Amino acid sequence: MTATYVPPSALKSRLMTALGLQSGNPSHEAVYLAVKAECATAYEATCGNRANLRPEFSRIVDKFTYNQMKESAIDNAIVQIYRNAQPNVRLWYDSWGVDGTSSNFIIRWFLYHLFRNRDARNDRKAKSMDFHADDDDEDSE
Fold this sequence. Notes:
- This protein is mainly alpha-helical and 141 residues long.
- The chain is built from six helices and no strands.
- Helix 2 crosses helix 5.
């Protein structure tokens, strides 16, 4: 099944539908979490290298946003995630019809949401609601 394109800002439910996965199905959620875990490793590496920041954001201390990163850094992260994917995750990418290029919208979606859920905009929300903002709740963008 080739996945239908989903923009990075789409909700998790829309991505899951496009990938033929059902929220609440334990095996489908396991696939989602496996892809997310691999993307989280690349997210950490990308944020850990200040050279990945666009020049106008070079003085920011931490909690970077997706848009503060150079496009080439995001593209490189996508390629690395695909290249380093575990065999079971690679099978899913292949079944969804995506490859190891920067046009891989699935990996881009995950990276976008990792940035979105971990950037400074969520600090007040997380503290006031006593939860970790990385929960991928359905209403997060």
